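S1.2 Input.
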Amino acid sequence: MFNAILATAAKAAAPAAQGAAPAQQTQTNPMGMLLLMGGAFILMFWMMSRSNKKQQQKREELLDSITKGTEVMLASGIYGTVSAVQDKIFTVEIADKVFVKVNRAGIHDVIRPEAPAAAEEKKEEKADK
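S1.3 Output.
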């Protein structure tokens, strides 16, 4: 049935196409397409490297802000308090009188203390449940 409809439409369009002037086909320049694709690739690469540099700079600032007494989370998921800072080694107290030495890259995150108002709000929400 679909073929019959297409055949009818083709017969109806044939006389109209015969009277019309043939359309000229334009050829695209392959070099222009290559330049366009190359430019898009370079733009994508630049955007990704820029994002990585920003993240790396933010991480360096985070690690530079660590001082004695800062609470941190290690890459293993262990929480502790920094008790000494050397060049690239942190001594972290993970329990009473239990110290571990951690490479700078082993620090995953710095734990920021919550504001007192925010802590009280969370307690109230838990109490309401």
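S1.4 Remarks. The beta strands are 71-74, 79-85, 89-95, 98-103, 107-110.
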